[in-house]
Every structure is written in C-alpha cells, then in structure tokens.
Amino acid sequence: MDLQLYSTENSFIQNLDQDDALLGSYPVDDGCRIHVIDKSGANIGEFEDLSRVEKYEISQDDYEKRSDSVRSFLKRNKLGKFNQEEAAQNAAEQQRKLEVERLAAESITPGSRCEVRAAGQPTKRGVVMYVGLTDFKPGYWVGVQYDEPYGKHDGSVDGKRYFTCSPKYGAFLKPQNLTVGDFPEEDFGLDDEM
What we know:
The chain is 19% helix and 24% strand. By secondary structure, it is α+β, with helices and mostly antiparallel strands.
C-alpha cells in the first residue's frame, strides 16, 4: 500500500514512503489526512462473504481419534461436560433452584399488588399479571404490569403474549425478586391541574 499525506485544506503534501521513519518525522498536523492506496488488488467486500473463504474442516470421527485436541484434553482431565460428577451436581443444583422458584411462584397469584426492589433502581409497584413457565427462558417467571412505564414490553415476548398491558409497562421477574402485599398505587400528583 502507498500512504499519502494531505493538509487540512485537502492538498497533497508528500508520500509517506520511508518504512523506517516515525509518523512524527513527517509534517503531520491536527486535521491532516492520510490517504491509503491499496495495491493488493483485493475488492471491497471480497472477504465478507464467508462462503468464499476456504476453511479447514475435520470429520467428527477423525477429531475424536486425535490425542492432541481440546476434546481429548477435557476427557483425560474429566473437565466440562466430561466430568460426570460435576454434571450430576449441576443438574441437582438446577433442579433445587427450579423447585425453590416453583414454591415461590405458587405463593403469588395474578391480580395481586406487588413491589419490586432492585439494586441501583427505583422501587417499582405494579400488579401481578402472569405466573408460570415461559418459552423465552427456563424456570418460573412472574409477569408484572408496572404503575409507571418502567417496563420493557406490553406483555408479549418474542411474539408470544403472556398478558396484556400498555407498551413499556410490562416486565418479567423471578418470583424471589418481588414482594406481594398491600402496595397502593402511588399518586405522583401528575393529574392535578395548576
């Protein structure tokens, strides 16, 4: 590639053609432009189509036979998915968490008033609209319609409707992240005329 230096008025100053020279040895000033001339013959966007890039591929059977692969290292050292004991512990822990969520969700009924407190966020109040499993993430979730537009949606996520509310008033939370109780709707005095 060739490099050319242009002034702030866009006039050619000189070629930057000394490979061992530092940029500071040229008369570069604030607002100057360095123009790059590509001499490789590559076309713009030529390497953006990954189907045209030649890749090395190996079959699963051949990869399984190799002794110097990441998979063989993980197997030898019983790490990751090859550690049966850890996998069993993780599965048991996930099952325990799901059971805790289920029990917490069972104590929450749709139509109840609730309060949500999250670190670094204002306290939010609303109405429980949905309790149960969802398609967007595993586990039990509680759908809440906030009193103010603190939410992310209108009760639908990824095209599936779980409940109905105004846009930006709906949110989903884990059951342990909210408290159900007698939380009246806050009056901010915004309806009063002056």
